[in-house]
Amino acid sequence: MKANVGAFDGWFRSLLFIVSLCYAVLVGGSSWFLLIPTGILFLTAILAWCPLYEMIGFNSNKDAPKAH
């Protein structure tokens, strides 16, 4: 797996997960379903690899070597 999630992208995904977790705790009820998709985003942020990015050929990681 080659890193294709950049720093800003990873921080944004992590922040989105934290906000949805707080929302789920405060509101409760059916808001817990948000944790599955945002949990996946958080996992991709930790791994710095997104399978969807790889499928479409997108790379937000500016530190990755460029293919010529």
Describe, in plain words, how this protein is organized in 3D.
The protein is mainly alpha-helical and 68 residues long. The model has no long low-confidence stretch (mean pLDDT 89).
Derived structural class: mainly alpha
- Write the element-wise H/E pattern from the N-terminal end onward: HHH
Unreliably modeled segments? none
Count the E strands: 0
- Taking all residues together, what is the mean pLDDT? 89
Beta-strand residue fraction: under 5%
The profile of the biggest β sheet is:
none
* Total number of distinct structural domains: 1
Helix content: 55-70%
Distance between the termini: 19 Å
The number of helical runs is 3
Radius of gyration: 14 Å
Global shape: elongated
Give the topology.
Elements: H1 7-27, H2 35-47, H3 51-56
Helix pairs in contact: 1-2
Structure summarized in a few sentences:
With 68 residues, this protein is mainly alpha-helical.
Provide tags for this entry.
3 helices; 59% helix
